[in-house]
Amino acid sequence: MLPLSDLLIWSLAGVLFGALISWIPGFHIFNIMALLVAVFGVGELMPVQAFPFFAIGAIVAYAYVSAISSVYFSVADESAVFLLFPTQRYLLLGRGHEAVLLYLIGAVAGTLFLVIGALFLFPRILPPIYQATSPYITYFLVAIVVFMFMSEWPKEGDRGRTPAERLWLAWRQIFGGILVFFLSGLLGFIVMNTNLLPTTSAYTRLTPMFIGFFGMSWVILNILSNPPMLEQVPDDRVESSLYNTLKATFGGALGGTIAAVYPIITGGMGALIAGHMTSQRGDDAFIISQGVNRVIYYVGAFTLLFLPQLRLTRGAAAWLVSSIYTPKSYAEYLAAIGAILLSAGISFLFTYYLSRFLAKSFNVVHIKKLSYVVAVTLVVISYLLTGPMGLAVLFVSTAIGLMAAAFNTRRSYCLGGLILPVLISMTGHTGYFMHLLGLG
Amino acid sequence: MRGFTHYISGLAAATFFAALVGDLRLGILIPVIAAASAYFPDFVDFKFGKFLARRDYEIDPAPWDEKKHYAPKLVKVSELSEENRYQFFAIEGTVEDILVRGSGKVSYKVLREDGSEETVTEEYNSIVFTLNDGTGKITVEAFGDDYEFFEEEFGKIEEGKEILVFGYVDVDEDGLKLVVSDAPHPQGIADTIARAIEEAYREGERIVKIHNIRLPGDVYRRFLVHLDPPKREVRVEMGPIVTPGGVAIGGDVPEYRKYGVAKVSVPFIKTYPKPTRIDSFSGPEIAFRRAEFRGKTVVKDRFLPWHHGFSHSLTMGMIIGLVVFALFKLIGYEHATELALASMIGQWLHVFEDQLGFMGSNLLPPITKDVVPGFKLGESGSGLTNFSTAWLMIAFMIWNFNRFTDPRPIPMSDAKLLLLLAWPSIVGFAIAIVRSFRLRREISELMDYYTNLEAFEEMEEVGGI
């Protein structure tokens, strides 16, 4: 293990790196870290033992600072699927800064939950429960997918003139969701199981697909919808209650923990489960719970890499880091928890002041102009990571992401790109489907 | 209970069968059918029943613009008729003739929270003019707070000016007029509900669908429908603009068009002691049915009449069990019997869990004909009961996975492990039970008010019944 002072410096470097890029719409810390490794490598500029701590700083910063893009620029990744719409409404009411503050309340609560849990609970509770339930992960995963389909709430249909018309309007949206899921799944299956993308992109082959589903599609929606840049109130004032905050914290922690511990179950899916389990209501509670959820989902999942008795590799960043260096000692685990606290404090301040600054100067640069710049940057990232075929994947996945919006259905159906191929693989049917698609 | 609570109960039901757990360990995922069966009653009701159900009255206070899917709908004058009275619309046209610019005093009644009335008199400014949109002319009237807003928006109104006006349609001796406002008038909603109650008393049943009011920006105008049996009144209160998450963001309507009150000439009772709140998602359906209550014929309300019917019965559970058994036996699934039992139990758990709430279900049709009232442990959306139930099911799953695995991943006695896992649920249910006593007492007091027999009898003396 490196000296503590070195780990501290590398954690701070990670926070700085994460904070600088995480507010930009469409950027995901996992993509940027992959790009960093691909371009600069690790071991020359940075010692390999320091990489996990650099990653912790960057991921904590992302979990905090990405609230800015979710609130002010309407772009978020899948785990913020429920965050998006309440925050858009807050922004339209000139209360974007309040939405960020609510998120920060949740993020701080999530950090405290994570740190206390990591120190006193997780090492004792997680290993036996994980051991008892891990053989049934496919059961949970398929159950969540079936529930997503069965529980889709038809947003239209009420006003049809006849029962048949009402039924059609309702089911049109549900069928749209199913179509998005299976098209995403088909794309994911091809990307994962063929040599469509170069082998040099082994760690980043899913990147253009996810950029398309959740980043580029929303950047394009920003350009198309050309939202008004309304004056924002930069006051430090939130409307919520202690009860709502506690309830939202509990729900967010539950969803984030489920998503962090079990593979393939993402933050959005965890939030769906926990939201139903705890019967979440109210925009303020939603935003707070998302702050909790995202911190535990991203940071908690990565922390599992350090947990001595369990050492689970969860999330793209953990896979990237573990391919270079896996922490081994309990001292590193404790140092990681300290790094989380420190990074969270800095990220909180950065997010808070950035939000105040943006609230005051919100309409200086129009979101449409910013979206053009981001769209070009996302194309460049995809090209650098995966070459020309990556751009083809980006194009198709963007179209699928836009389809979800057009059908007014859940954006999280795009997770079919990950879930379907994994389910096919887990149940041993990859060969059969390759043959069925004429790919092998 | 919420959908996922039922669903996870089905997931847990499957884990009580060692054969099914064995299949899951082998990657055979068929037991997820038990979870789908547990969710089936809500799936059928909310994906089919809701849309196919009969509607005798459809109240749409603010029809949607067909392209934008929110109100107000931009209409032509020629499209409007007396049937649109109190509905919220927008009209674009030219100011043709200014009829009156004036000021005066307006008096109106305000309902206090305790139900008493107060008469308020205010000074107001007003304008009345005719608007021509090429298909016809309509009188437009703006007064009071709405006039102030109108003047702020358009400046001084002059003949020949092109404007887009929104407001509710009203009717007077001169015909149709558009009263400038930012919401429909609640009187139309109150009148229709009162009419439905009176018809139900004569004919047996009337089902009313009440649509919500969706406005630009994905926000909703909240309104409350309050049935007051002792006063024999339907009162509708137009509320603030709220987000889909229920947060009020202002936009309160002026007092003079906040309330709609309609008298009902027949006795009715309300089975749920709170006003019906309509805001985001979709509006409710309410069935008014003739029934006997304490020896008198009255009209009773039933919220979402298409919900908690046959789909939420134990009979349906048996049918699901038989269908699952037949289907999976046919395709040669080795554990079809266990799966059928798990599916039936999953659906029964759904029925039982809903029975803990208020609504109740028709438990054993065709033997039982109507819903059996719920145990009133908590409302269906209660976070406490939902979490306690869902957590209990998670505890059962972990417990079952452990005891059906050899060697056991958690080396602990079954009883101790279950207790360690389930304590949050035990605590949650204990709190819910304690709370339910208070809730029942409150309901009892409110029901006494709602079903005030003295009021019925008094009315009877004067020929009310």
Report what the structure shows.
The complex is a heterodimer of chains A (440) and B (465). Chain A contains 16 helices and no strands. With 440 residues, chain A is mainly α. Chain A has helices at residues 4-22, 29-40, 51-72, 84-92, 96-133, 137-150, 163-193, 207-225, 242-261, 267-278, 283-303, 316-322, 330-360, 367-406, 416-426, 430-436. Mean pLDDT of chain A is 87; it is low at 79-84. The termini of chain A are far apart. Chain A has one domain (2-435). In chain A, α1 runs parallel beside α3 and α3 (51-72) runs antiparallel to α12 (316-322). Helix content of chain A is 71%, strand content 0%. Chain B has helices at 3-14, 18-25, 32-52, 144-154, 187-203, 314-330, 336-355, 383-403, 414-450, 453-461, and strands at residues 57-59, 73-74, 88-111, 117-132, 137-143, 162-172, 175-180, 205-210, 213-215, 219-228, 233-242, 259-263, 268-269, 276-278, 285-293, 296-303. In chain B, α1 (3-14) packs parallel to α8 (383-403), α6 packs antiparallel against α7 (336-355) and α8 packs antiparallel against α9 (414-450). Chain B folds into two domains: 3-49 and 309-452, no CATH class; 60-305, Nucleic acid-binding proteins (OB fold (Dihydrolipoamide Acetyltransferase, E2P)), CATH 2.40.50.140. In chain B, the strands form three sheets. A five-stranded mixed sheet of chain B has the order 1-8-15-16-13, with helices on one face. Chain B has a five-stranded mixed beta barrel with strand order 3-4-5-7-6. The two termini of chain B are 39 Å apart. Chain B is elongated and about 90 Å long. Chain B is α+β, with helices and mostly antiparallel strands and 465 residues long. The longest helix of chain B is centred in the C-terminal third of the chain and has 37 residues, at 414-450. Chains A and B meet through α4, α5, α6, α7 and α10 of A and α1, α3 and α8 of B.
